[in-house]
Amino acid sequence: MTVWDGVFLGLSAATTVSALLYCLTGVTLGTFVGVLPGIGSLAAISMLMPISFHLEPQNALIMLAGVYYGALYGGSTASILLNLPGSPSSAVACLDGYPMAQQGRAGLALSLTTIASFVGASAGIVLMIAFSPLIASVGLGMTAADYFALLLLGLVAASTIASGSPVRGIAMVVTGITLGLVGTDVQTGQHRFTFGSLYLADGINLVALSIGLFGIPEIISNLSLRTERRVTQTVTLRSMIPSGDDLRRSWMPMLRGIGLGSFVGALPGAGTNIAAFMTYAFEKNLSRTPERFGKGAIEGVVAPETSNNAAAQTAFVPTMSLGIPGDATMALLLGVLIMHGIQPGPRLVSEQPVMFWSLIMSFWVGNILLVVLNLPLIGLWVQVLNIPRRYLMPSIIALMSIGVFSINGNPLDVLTMAVAGLAGYVLRLGKFEPAPLILGFILGPLMEQYFRRAYSIARGDLLSMVSSPSVAAMLGLSAVIIVLMLWRARKRAGTAAVRTRSDVEDVAS
Amino acid sequence: MKTAPFPKVLPGAMVALLGALWTVLSLSRWFFAAGDPRPGMTPLACGVLLVLLGVAIIWMDIAARGEPEQPSAAGDQGPMPDGDADDEERRELLAVAVTIGAIILFAVLIRPLGLFLATFALFCCVATLVQFKSIVQFVVSYVALAAFVWGVFIFGLRLPIPVLP
User: Could you give the C-alpha distances from A85 to A14, B8, B75, B84, in angstroms and in order?
Assistant: First the structure.
């Protein structure tokens, strides 16, 4: 099948009534949760996963992917109007978007972020169409040892680059792997760490765990707030029309955002947040007038917004073509596929062409829907920011609980969610990121399977297992990343210790 | 969400403890023959790694004891007065207790009482924290939620969830 055959096949599947309906549902829900400060796409996808299990896998994936990129569109609205980021990657929109709103240019900032998001996403989709089948064909030739090494590299990169502390990130990945091993061992049928419980024989429920780790801490965070912030600005359609000068100043930052975002998005562990902040820093360094940044510079809004949307699309490249997710959101989407009985990986493109291509083409449909939702209907989303917490929070907690219960009709799943929620809260207090844990939880068992398969093929000879140049290179790169990050962490700890000592001496003197 | 007190060594200790537990549990399943990797191998490796990482985190946290807290990216209002911080801490702990408690209550009640009453119990719990302006507002909100839940899960998805006791 050629790329064009795939594109037409995907277009016909993505424009059926049911696919359009689920795409619209996904992007609308995504924009809704994106607009709400604090609730990111990860928490939103976790909350919607229970419903997705009752849908066709293709429609489920289209809807959840819609939530993912819809949340990116909506995330900047709260950043611009309230200086409260709707999602972590939207935090960068606060830097220049909020000053623009204070200057009475909120409408322009909102329309430019929508245009930039659409341009970035479209470029990302084109790159995905071009590269996914190519990478999948390379993936078909990979051995079990290659897969093990690639998964290890992805986990190491994701845990050390994306999270604040690399040591804490690795600890979270390893914790995720250990939790992922709970249940029945697929190779021997032995129960591992089930403590005699039949409930645990199937493993820890992914949905309950992810809602607990991501959704519940967000709810607690929202419920802890004493006051609610309200939007006072009015955004009219007229105020959203950019001038010729605005567009002229935007197109080059958009192009740079596409380049940087697409590249960073496809890397394991980097994700949309890093893409957005890197692009902002790059744009500021490149500017002849960097002093305008942070005071309402259009470039500071447009470039990162283009970048994070391009990154959001290219993040699907390794996920769909190799079955290796770059970040926790992609890992959750992969988890949805696995729970639907679909094995992600290079064979997905050839064995499930309708699903693969319809998902890609639904991105375009979804992005067009998002432009409609975010330009003429922006007033509606501004009003969403004013919905009182007393209506939202009880409903969200109820929907999460019912959703988790509905998967197996088992109250133990709801209790697992409560325990995971408490764990998620404690992890945040201890400055641990829960995202690497989910990555480890989903990829850990897969990595173990590949390792054991490769180990058996090599007849227990570890040296011959890693003798292939590609495996050696990936394992070497993983080791280099770990050493570099540990060295950096040690240096940081050393600096802090010296600073503490000098502070104590100052106080003593 | 960073107001509740948390001892410096606790995060690392938690990781190390989990690792130690996993190592002990894995050792009982530790069978390893060349060419036949047994199910205890990966858990044991993870357990040992977690112990080492836990110790490293404890060491780093103790070394960084004097390091000032990083301000948040946006919306940071600076340090709060002591009274406000205590109040916020209390509110946060209350939010944890109410949220987790409401979910546990729902799990316990869903089978014997059905969807509507279990949701009502959960709704009442959370309502203690969000404070509705009047009883009418509370009732209307619950009825709207119950109708939505019935529409999505029972009517739309046709799930066999018990609705009434």
Answer: 31, 29, 9, 24
